Amino acid sequence: MGRLNGKVALITGAGSGVGAACMDLFLAKGAKVVGVGRTESHLQDTLDGLEDIHASSARIVAADVSTETGVECAVQHAKDAFGSIDILVHAAGVGYSWEKQSPGSMADVVHVTPDKWSEVMRINLDAYYLLCRAIVPVMKAGGGGSIVGVTSISGFQGLSAAHAYTAAKAGMINLTRSMSVSYVRDNIRVNCIAPGFIATPMVEDVLNLFDDAQTAEQLSPMCRPGTPEEMAYGCLYLASDESTYCSGTVLVIDGGTTARQ
C-alpha cells in the first residue's frame, strides 16, 4: 500500500485492457488518477468496477489523445481535478483488432494505403508525442515526474503484416529513449513496457490460438497469454519511486517469447 501516495497519474486507454488495469492498481496504491479514453461508456465501466474507497480519487474524461484538442482536454481536466500530473501512463492504441473497424490497416507495407498508414501512426505514435509534448512542461513545473509508454515486442520484431503497427511501436521505443536523455536533468524519467501476447480486447479474436498446445508454445514459452494486471504491475514499478535510477528502459513482459530469439 502507498507506493504512489501523493501522486497524480494520467492514464490513457483506461476504458479496457492494460489502461483499465493500471487505473485500478494505481488507485489501490494511493494515487489520484484521471482515466482517459475515446469512449465514455467504457470509461464508466472501469469507474464502476472500482472499489468505493477509491471513487473520490478517480476521474474519467472522454478524449481522443491522437488530436491536440483531445490532449489539451485531458491534461486540463487532470490539472483542474488534482492540480498537477506526476505520472503519465500511455496505454491507448490500436492493434490487430483494429482491422475489423478499419480494413487494410494491419496489412504489409505494399498493401496498406497511405491513409491507413497515417491513421495507425496517428493513433499509436502521434498520440504519445502529443501527450508528452503537453505533459513534460507540467512535470517540469512540478519538479519532475515519470512517463511510461505501453509499446510492444512487435516494436523490435519483424512481422509479415501490421507494418504500420510495428513501425509505430518501434517509434515509441526510440522516442522513449530519446526523451529519457533530454529530460533527465528535469527529474523526469521516461520508460516503457513491451508486452508480448496479452489477453485484451485488442487480440480477443485470436486468443483461441492458445487452445492448441504446439501453437501456444510458439507464442509464449509459458504457453499462455499475459494478463492486463501483469502489465499494470510493470507500469507501477516504472511509475513509482522504486525505479528512480531507471530511465530509457524497455521493460519486456512477454512470458519469455523474445528470450529465444
Automatic annotation (TrEMBL):
PROSITE patterns: ADH_SHORT, PROKAR_LIPOPROTEIN
Pfam families reported for this sequence: adh_short_C2
GO molecular function, one term: oxidoreductase activity, acting on the CH-OH group of donors, NAD or NADP as acceptor
InterPro entries tied to this protein: NAD(P)-bd_dom_sf, Sc_DH/Rdtase_CS, SDR_fam
Family according to the record: Belongs to the short-chain dehydrogenases/reductases (SDR) family.
Name by which UniProt lists this protein: Short-chain dehydrogenase
Organism encoding this protein: Kineobactrum sediminis
